[in-house]
Amino acid sequence: MIKTRFAPSPTGPLHIGGLRTALFNFLFAKQNKGEFLLRIEDTDKKRSEKKWEKEIFENLEKLNLFWDNKVERQSKRKEIYKIYLEKMLENGTAYYCFCTKEELDKEREELIKQGRAPVHQGKYRTLPLKEALKKNGNPVIRFKCPLNKDIVFHDLIRGAIKINTNDIGDFVIAKDLNNPLYNFTCTIDDYEMQISHVIRGEEHIPNTPKQILLGEALNFPIPEFAHLSLILGKDKRKLSKREGSTAIADYLKQGYLPPAIINFIAFLGWNPGTDKEIYSLDELIKDFSIKKVSKSGAIFNIDKLDWINGMYIRKMNLDELTQKCLPYLKQKKGIDNKKVVLAYKDRLKKLEDITKLTDYLYQDKLNYNKELLRWKDMQDREVKKSLTDALNLIKENNENIKEKLIKEAKKASSIGNFMWPLRVALSGKKASAGPDEIINIIGKEESLKRIQSALAFLTKS
Ligand code: GLU
């Protein structure tokens, strides 16, 4: 059975890159009727926090990326790692190393001076375990790396990757029996969880040969590997805060919809090779192909996310969209938020945009510059006339306001001369919904009040 895993370290919020790793693992497992597992890599006690673990779970759930089985936590598996460490020490595939930091630094310096790779030369690799156990000191545990052996693996995205063990050396696998390190715990867990495919970021390519070597030493079957390219900003540099936030929670908070986020993330490195750009999670499960994932960096383009999100917003039915917009809208007696959402849904890139766009609808008193009431070079008296005509029209009519306003506007010297002062009187803004939409939302009484205030404003100065 195909089994994949997402194995985050809970040292910070779930980021764009992490979510993409989770998504690709999820899609690959699901399209093969396999399992997608979640493993929390929390062996680094200082940097791991429960709150981040919770944050990762919550965000994956919000995005509908549900994992199979119970979550595994490395901090709960120390006894298991210890058994494997002891086994390796006993069969001589690992050994205790007593080198001090000073010694290692010196060795490194020397090697670099000689123009050689700074790879540890394994001073203690032949010290028998019995002797090591009698020796004083704080030894670490190193892997006894086979000498001069080519390790080749066929990355599903990048093809063959080859590295010689002489460039790896005897790497540390545990600080002591109770404190194993990443490459070791990862190898043990991938085996015990029967992971068939390891899909992760390209920063882990240097770890893969080490994990293969450990797996071979323990007679484990070796999983397949796929390494995803970096996510880059528009400037082609590694994605960072420069492009805005990289934390998924922030995107959700701003009102990017979960299916839009998923749709967008799927395209970071993958594309179907067709024009189709809008994909549901189920469609992604069907069409995603790990073989079509690109080797080169994926560009993070927020405009694309805005565009996709806008599509999802407009596709949603009005009741549901209104419900989703409520946290971003003010409340006021007499204002039906559904009407507000209807008037604004075409202008939203993300739900939080609606707050600023619609603030004027809920205000008791508008605050704007009188000059804004003037369309082009209108005189004050012309502005007043337009507003008075509009006031009377609205007073006398309850229905078909839009048509009536248009008819009236056509009588004026220009449509702008009639519509602009009215729209500004109603909104106090350079840009807003149309006058009829505003009247429909705030009601006749409030509209008349706003026009009267504008007239008073003109008279005052
Ligand atoms: N805990 C590692 C990380 O967050 C995951 C490594 C892996 O997927 O093997 O980068």
Notes on the structure:
- The protein has 461 residues and is mainly alpha-helical.
- Among the domains are: 45 residues, no CATH class; 91 residues, Arc Repressor Mutant, subunit A (Orthogonal Bundle).
- It is 46% helix and 11% strand.
- The chain is built from 19 helices and 12 strands.
- The protein has a 3-stranded parallel beta sheet with strand order 1-2-3. A 3-stranded antiparallel beta sheet has the order 4-5-8. It has a two-stranded antiparallel sheet with strand order 6-7.
- Strand 1, helix 1 and strand 2 form a beta-alpha-beta unit.
- The protein is elongated.
- 33% of the residues are buried.
- The mean pLDDT is 96.
- It binds glutamic acid.
N- to C-terminal distance: 80 Å
Strand count, sense and closure of the main sheet?
3 strands, parallel
By DSSP (H or I, 4+ residues per run), the number of helices equals 19
Top-tier CATH class of the domain at 370-460: Mainly Alpha
Helix content: 40-55%
Question: Based on the structure given, which CATH architecture of the domain at 370-460 is correct?
Answer: Orthogonal Bundle
Rg, alpha carbons: 32 Å
Q: What would you call the shape?
A: elongated
Overall pLDDT metric: 96
Q: Strand sequence of the main sheet, in spatial order? A: 1-2-3
Quaternary organisation of the protein chains: single chain
Small molecules (ligands, ions, cofactors) in the structure? glutamic acid
Which percent band covers the strand fraction?
A: 5-15%
The secondary structure category is mainly alpha
Query: How many DSSP-defined strands?
Result: 12
| Low-pLDDT stretches | none
Q: Might you state the CATH topology name of the domain at 370-460?
A: Arc Repressor Mutant, subunit A
